[in-house]
Amino acid sequence: MRIVLVLEYNGSRYCGWQSQPAGGSVQDILEIALSKIACHTIRVVTAGRTDAGVHALYQVVHFDTQAQRPLNAWVRGVNRFLPHDIAVSWASVVSDQFHARYGAYERRYLYLLLNRPVRPGLCHARVGWLHHSLDLTRMQVAAKMLLGEHDFTAFRAAACQAKSPVRRLTRLEIYRQNNFFIFEICANAFLQHMVRNIVGSLVYVGKGKYAPEWMQTLLESRNRTYAAPTFSAAGLYLAGVSYDSIWQLPDFIEYPFEICLPAILR
């Protein structure tokens, strides 16, 4: 049978999602725990590979098994074998037609940026940080230029293995709450480092290094060397993955910007 899971994790201690020969990834830890419950080796397929230091509020995986277990075993049972910073929140049996990666039609990320002169202490490794003051309006104007379907070569990592740099950005909103800026980004899929590169370039606009129109010029250049450096992974959260309603996955957790900080930093 095929099982689908929703999980969350704090990625600060891990080398990213994808399994590594030496271990130490979120995938490695999860597969060990699942294998203990199934009593055979489990390999999972994920909706998206998060980088080292990136967190997830709503990650989706599926795996196949012949083990007959109650659904609670794939949640509370697996959590018994997981470290404190990784947790399965939901499980269900699905047909073999479900695919965590290819069945997803949209991914949603949040980036939390602390903007104050002093570095974070309490939320170290959970938020990005910048000491230069930022102009919200300038960043919002620049963000609108990235909406729609574009070639995002200027925002992809040099090592990105995606066959095409074309992605469809459906949402890019920026909010402010006290000393925090919250970036919400939705797309059909993302290139490697795409979100962090977009945030880094928007920060350049926000601190006055470039005018908002620079974002359009940058997009059209299709040249990664013209963009800002890749921003810190610490503030990035995979916050949702969307599928056809026939699969009946739970709605991803909504974190309105007014309350998202207490929810994420709990």
UniProtKB/TrEMBL annotation:
Binding, substrate: Y109
Annotated Pfam families: PseudoU_synth_1
Catalytic residue list: D51
Coiled-coil regions listed in the entry: none
GO annotation, biological process: tRNA pseudouridine synthesis
Gene3D superfamilies membership: Pseudouridine synthase I, catalytic domain, C-terminal subdomain, Pseudouridine synthase I, catalytic domain, N-terminal subdomain
Sequence ranges assigned to domain Pseudouridine synthase I TruA alpha/beta in this UniProt record: 8-102, 142-244
Alphabetized UniProt keyword annotations: Isomerase, tRNA processing
Protein EC: 5.4.99.12
HAMAP family: TruA (MF_00171)
Subunit structure, as described in the record: Homodimer.
Main function: Formation of pseudouridine at positions 38, 39 and 40 in the anticodon stem and loop of transfer RNAs.
Name under which the protein is recorded: tRNA pseudouridine synthase A
Species of provenance: Nitrosomonas cryotolerans ATCC 49181
Gene from which this protein is expressed: truA
